[in-house]
């Protein structure tokens, strides 16, 4: 049985992950409007991954007899500036999620919640990847600068991103 404290903390993380999903969708819509369909597609795939993250935690709470309290999700930003600032915002968002995952991990250690600790291992590793990916795109966009043709090449490249294989988002992965 999950402790009330861990249950509440995990419910809060469900909110964080859904918020991330909403925020990426908002960024995706922005890029569609700016005629950058590759960046828009990349953001849409990322939004789907965040949904999967939220559902992993949702299932973990339920698997342990806890109560899922579906949260209100704040409205993410709608107005954005240049592509590099959008991805910088994404990177900041990922860093904030990393901190919240680490706080959950610390809580699991402190309360000797071993199932939660093992469950959270996947998220700790995932955040390393998420930050690395966002940092890479930020750096590439900085290299591109005001070079419009190079921006279009990068847009096309990021548009190749595919959703994770079916099952990769299940609780077993
Ligand atoms: Fe689920 Fe990108 O953190």
Summary of the model, kept short:
The chain has 173 residues and is mainly alpha-helical. It has five helices and no strands.
Plain-language structure description:
It is built from five helices and no strands. The protein starts with a helix and ends in a 15-residue tail after the last helix. Mean pLDDT is 95; it is low at 167-173. It is mainly α and 173 residues long. It has helices at 4-33, 37-63, 83-110, 114-144, 148-158. MU-OXO-diiron (FEO) binds at residues 17, 20, 50, 53, 94, 97, 130. MU-OXO-diiron binds at residues 17, 20, 50, 53, 94, 97, 130.
Task: Chart the SSEs and their pairings.
Layout: H1 4-33, H2 37-63, H3 83-110, H4 114-144, H5 148-158
The structure holds MU-OXO-diiron.
Class from secondary-structure proportions: mainly alpha
Spell out the helices and strands N to C.
HHHHH
Rg calc: 17 Å
Helical amount among residues, as a percent range?
over 70%
Ligands in the model, by name, code or SMILES, are:
MU-OXO-diiron
Number of helices: 5
Q: How many extended strands? A: 0
Question: Mean pLDDT score, rounded?
Answer: 95
Poorly predicted ranges: 167-173
Proportion of beta-strand residues: under 5%
Largest sheet: none
Terminal residue distance:
22 Å
Oligomer designation: single chain
Keyword list:
173 residues; mainly alpha; 5 helices; 0% strand; disordered C terminus; binds MU-OXO-diiron
């Amino acid at each position: 049985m999950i402790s009330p404290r861990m249950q509440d903390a995990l419910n809060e993380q469900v909110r964080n992950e859904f918020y991330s999903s909403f925020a990426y969708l908002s960024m995706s819509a922005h890029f569609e409007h700016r005629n950058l369909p590759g960046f828009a597609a990349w953001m849409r795939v990322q939004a789907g991954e965040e949904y999967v993250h939220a559902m992993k935690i949702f299932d973990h709470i339920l698997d342990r007899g806890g109560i899922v309290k579906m949260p209100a999700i704040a409205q993410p930003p709608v107005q954005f500036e240049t592509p590099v600032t959008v991805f910088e915002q994404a990177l900041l968002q990922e860093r904030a999620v990393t901190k919240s995952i680490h706080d959950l991990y610390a809580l699991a250690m402190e309360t000797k919640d071993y199932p939660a600790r093992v469950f959270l291992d996947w998220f700790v590793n995932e955040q390393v990847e998420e930050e690395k990916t966002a940092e890479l795109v930020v750096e590439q966009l900085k290299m591109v600068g005001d070079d419009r043709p190079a921006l279009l090449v990068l847009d096309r490249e990021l548009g190749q991103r595919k959703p994770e294989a079916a099952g990769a988002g299940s609780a077993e992965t």
